[in-house]
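Task 17 of the worksheet. Students: predict the tertiary structure of the chain below and write it out as structure tokens. Keep your answer in the requested format; marks are given for formatting as well as content.
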Amino acid sequence: MISKAPSEYDKTVPQHIRAAKLLEQSREIKRGDIISYVKIINKPGVKPVEMARPDEIDSAKYMEFMESTLDQITSSMDLDFDTIIGKPKQTGLDQFFWN
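Model answer:
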């Protein structure tokens, strides 16, 4: 939710405000508006949901978020996220030579 007008942000500009500034080109954005955005591959790094194309969305970034979150959950159960999704474990040279 926007707590002040997008134009009032001058030093640090949060991601939702960057998206709001893009939306301002097509409609008025005011205090209290909720801005839904997605992370994109190119600059400025985010885009309002209604303006983003599927090929722009940074799916790798969302996979990182998901992996980080699920890894915290699975590690508490003594499980490994990579093993759950079927990703082969990287083995060291010790295992190659001594097994």
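Marker's comment: The longest helix spans residues 59-76. The chain has two domains: 6-56, 59-88.
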